[in-house]
Design brief:
Layout: H1 6-9, H2 16-35, H3 42-53, H4 59-66, H5 70-82, E1 86-89, E2 96-99, H6 101-125, H7 129-142
Antiparallel strand pairs: 1-2
Helix pairs in contact: 2-6, 3-6
Length: 143
């Protein structure tokens, strides 16, 4: 393990969760900075992108798809609803969500910025990217 890891330097076992969380925060900052010109965070972008691929899911279905806790997801999409990028159909028992035309436009504006950030991360990972994605998927599935 890398000696610049404070836990290892202190003679402690490294914490996988802590390392993944630090990495996640660093990646989130990188993508958030890239998406800032269009007024989205990477979390909002991901929700819009996922929602655009689904057929009017309920909040529960979207939460399951994105691995969010329902109430946290609801808080996260509130600004997107207020901005007019997501529509929430409240006439049905199970509230249905969809991306509005303005939301599709916002997503189109954000996509090149996301791709640029994605390319920089891919460049850093190099040929390890595919293996990393597979490993993360395995962790997500089995933990």
């Amino acid at each position: 393990m890398n000696s610049d890891d404070p836990a290892v330097a202190a003679g402690l076992d490294p914490c996988v969760c802590g390392r993944l969380r630090r990495t996640s925060r660093a990646l989130t900052r990188r993508y958030d900075e890239a998406l800032a010109p269009v007024g989205l965070t990477v979390t909002q972008f991901s929700i819009l992108r996922t929602l655009s691929r689904l057929d009017r899911p309920s909040l529960v279905e979207l939460a399951e798809t994105t691995a969010h806790e329902r109430s946290a997801l609801w808080r996260t999409i509130q600004p997107l609803i207020r901005s007019g990028w997501i529509a929430a159909d409240t006439e049905q028992r199970a509230q249905r969500l969809s991306v509005t035309p303005a939301g599709h436009e916002k997503l189109s504006d954000a996509l090149p910025l996301w791709r640029e950030a994605q390319a920089k991360v891919s460049e850093t990972l190099g040929d390890r990217e595919t293996a990393l994605i597979a490993l993360l998927k395995e962790i997500e599935t089995h933990v």
